[in-house]
Design brief:
Shape: globular
Number of strands: 4
CATH class: Alpha Beta
Radius of gyration: 19 Å
CATH topology: NADH Oxidase
Number of helices: 9
Oligomer: single chain
């Protein structure tokens, strides 16, 4: 059996990192909201969903952010910047998460209570660095979904990890539990994106 060239496959191959955007194009906020809601179908550790978002649309704020993000042009010219943050206190939402799962019929009450107890016991005792690693990994999962969904909606994106995270946290007054992870520029491409090569499978995978 071979992989069917599905619509998802098409979107995956058409999605490219875009750094030149139509400066005057504005994505309606309702569409950005819809995009983020759909993206939250991404998996996460113990379903704790540690992602948080700061969506920056204001022109003056984007201009200010550009200096924090190594003067990358797309920060200012894209329609919006989605800052993906990781919440290292995600375990504090465990009761809300599993109670909702129970109410929706996804698990019985005994399983709900066990998951709440076990998750609180585990995550509340983890060092902050490990919690940060978990949140970073989960943020990567949802970031990819954001970019694929954006392409499906007719928009282009690029992720940026190269920015001053300390300055970002200070400028936007992030609480200690919120960690800046990536910035995603989203908008309409002004010029076609460049293609890019990939390493051969033999160089990156071993089947045993």
């Amino acid at each position: 059996m071979t992989i069917t060239k599905s619509y998802l496959n098409k979107v995956m191959h058409e999605r490219k990192s875009v750094r030149k955007y139509e400066e005057n194009y504005k994505i309606p906020q309702a569409e950005l909201e819809e995009l983020l809601v759909e993206a939250t179908t991404a998996p996460s550790s113990s379903n704790l969903q540690p992602w948080r978002f700061l969506v920056i649309q204001d022109e003056a704020v984007k201009k200010e952010l550009r200096s924090i993000a190594n003067n990358q042009e797309q920060v200012e010219t894209a329609s919006a910047i989605i800052a993906v943050l990781g919440d290292t206190a995600m375990y504090k939402n465990v009761e809300e998460v599993y109670t909702k799962n129970f109410e929706l019929g996804y698990m019985d009450e005994a399983t709900k209570n066990m998951m709440i107890e076990n998750s609180l016991k585990l995550y509340s005792n983890l060092p902050k660095e490990i919690l940060k690693n978990i949140a970073t990994f989960d943020a990567g999962l949802i970031s990819m979904q954001i970019m694929l969904l954006a392409k499906d909606m007719g928009y282009d994106t690029v992720t940026m990890g190269g920015f001053n995270k300390e300055a970002f946290a200070q400028r936007f007054e992030l609480t200690d539990n919120l960690v800046p992870i990536v910035l995603i520029a989203i908008g309409k491409a002004a010029t076609p994106a460049h293609g890019s090569s990939r390493l051969a499978l033999n160089d990156i995978a071993k089947f045993i």
